[in-house]
Amino acid sequence: MSLAKQLALLSPVYVPLILSVILLAGSRLRERAKMWLSAAMLNASMVFLGNYLYFSHNYHTYSYLHSFHIFSVLAVYPSVYIYVLLLTRPGYSLRSAWRHFVPGLVFFVLSATVFYFFLTPEQRVYFLSTYRLHPTYDNFALRFLFRVRYFNIAALFVQIVLYAVLIYKVLAGYRKQLPEWFSDPSGISLGWMRIFNATFILAAFLSISFYSINPVKLFGDERYLIFPLYLFAVIIWILGILGNNQKEVFTGKQDDGNISDNGSEPQGYEKLSEAMKVWMEMEKPYLKPDLKIWDVSLALHTNRTYLSRMINQLHRCNFSQYVNRYRVEHSKT
């Protein structure tokens, strides 16, 4: 095999690996989304390494990675979802992220227990090379792994639909909240992520569909599966490239301060509104194009939720509209 062909076949492996290094090297301490995406690219590299070993018929080497490969594939979609959460939700805690990887861990344990403890090395290669294409029913361990494979495929289809819906809902909610958080939300709408979500899910469905119907058995040629997998790989590369260029939406500390909403809300609103008006006129923070509601709540020693509610109810607008009123008046002077 020529060097050029070998490099082309390995590109789904080393391109995400390179992107992972670039993302990690370019991320600052508080850029959690970029650091998480770096880990996701590393996982994608692992997925495509397993694909490469399997489709190049290197079953002996692949057998050592088989169960880890199952986990890696089931970690792709949750990893993308958590990346979206880190981009769009201020203060999202990664401590709750582990539950998204439970299906992968379950299938890893089911597969690894039987594959590594109940099969000989020769039987592992036989399962990967022959049994999955032409199953027989003479060995309980092999039958069990064959069924695990189909439950794994079903779990992947469920994941694709579930995380497509979840990502869409998170992005829709984020887009709705942008004017409440930012004075100028135009540059951080994450429109590219909505397009990516649609193409990512389409490519994933195509890849898993071709994998489940077994193109080698159906068409006699595994190239029918390689093409959708390459499409999936290219979309992963695009995520890494765009993610590297994506500025962190939430940097620094975004919290709700330490002031409660005690007392009569209308009275509290009036007092806070007056304090905000004085601060806006004296400090002119509206001249900052990237002014955020957290900047205002910190300066006024209140919390973001209470401040946003006050602007909505007392001034009948969102934060972006409120700040833009001052910008319009300033442009007239």
Question: What is the topological layout?
Answer:
Elements: H1 3-26, H2 32-55, H3 59-88, H4 102-117, H5 121-131, H6 140-181, H7 191-213, H8 215-219, H9 223-245, H10 265-283, H11 293-299, H12 304-314, H13 319-332
Explain how this protein is built.
- The protein is mostly helical and 333 residues long.
- It has helices at residues 3-26, 32-55, 59-88, 102-117, 121-131, 140-181, 191-213, 215-219, 223-245, 265-283, 293-299, 304-314, 319-332.
- Helix 2 (32-55) runs antiparallel to helix 3 (59-88).
The run of helices and strands is HHHHHHHHHHHHH
Number of helical regions? 13
The stretches of 5 or more residues where confidence is low (pLDDT under 50) are none
Kindly identify the CATH topology of the largest domain. Answer: Rhopdopsin 7-helix transmembrane proteins
CATH class of the largest domain: Mainly Alpha
Give the proportion of residues in helices.
over 70%
Distance between the termini: 72 Å
The coarse silhouette is elongated
Give the number of DSSP strands.
Answer: 0
Number of folding domains?
A: 2
The average pLDDT value, as a whole number, equals: 86
Radius of gyration: 26 Å
Q: What structural class results from the helix and strand content? A: mainly alpha
CATH architecture heading of the largest domain: Up-down Bundle
Largest sheet: none
Strand content is: under 5%
